[in-house]
Design goal:
alpha+beta, six-stranded antiparallel sheet, three-stranded antiparallel sheet, 15% helix, globular
């Protein structure tokens, strides 16, 4: 049986728009090798990967859906704005973050590392406040992913993001 992600619905939280699409959290879903994680994401259409951490300030993206896979260390990530969900990311944790959802690293171990990618390798912006008219348009017209970054086209994401 395929591992199912935890869906989290994050309502708007001024100034962050968040998303009607649920944030998806997988546990124990990845190997610890960053190259293997990048390859897994790429096989499923989530490309333009990077290996780094998560910014220590609330930000969101209007032009891309993002996946983050923790490969080393640990972090406390705040999702949805200052009053949003607090999540402990450890190796194997995967977050699929819909465009518009604010996220922030509120503290991490020195060795914390994620592999990040975007659906279709889309360029992403970094927005720290309320959306402009153009950013609202980006959110309204951004296509939904065709594939789950962990399990591919038959995975849970296409179903969970279309209901």
């Amino acid at each position: 049986m395929m591992d199912q992600p935890e869906p989290h619905h994050l309502p708007p939280s001024t100034p962050f728009p968040n998303s009607p699409l649920p944030l998806l959290v997988y546990h124990d879903a990845l190997p610890s090798d960053p190259a293997a994680v990048e390859s897994l994401f790429a096989r499923h259409g989530w490309t333009a990967a990077w290996v780094n951490g998560v910014y220590p300030f609330h930000h969101w993206h209007s032009s891309a859906h993002e996946v983050l896979g923790c490969t080393r260390g640990q972090a406390r990530l705040r999702l949805g704005g200052p009053e949003g969900l607090l999540l402990d990311a450890i190796p194997g944790t995967v977050l699929v973050i819909p465009a518009g959802v604010a996220h922030c690293n509120e503290g991490s171990s020195p060795d914390f590392q994620v592999v990040g990618a975007t659906d279709g390798g889309r360029d992403y912006d970094i927005v720290r406040g309320a959306p402009t008219a153009r950013q609202r348009e980006n959110l309204a017209t951004l296509p939904l992913p065709k594939s789950d970054p962990v399990h591919g086209p038959g995975g849970p994401l296409p179903r969970l993001w279309r209901t």
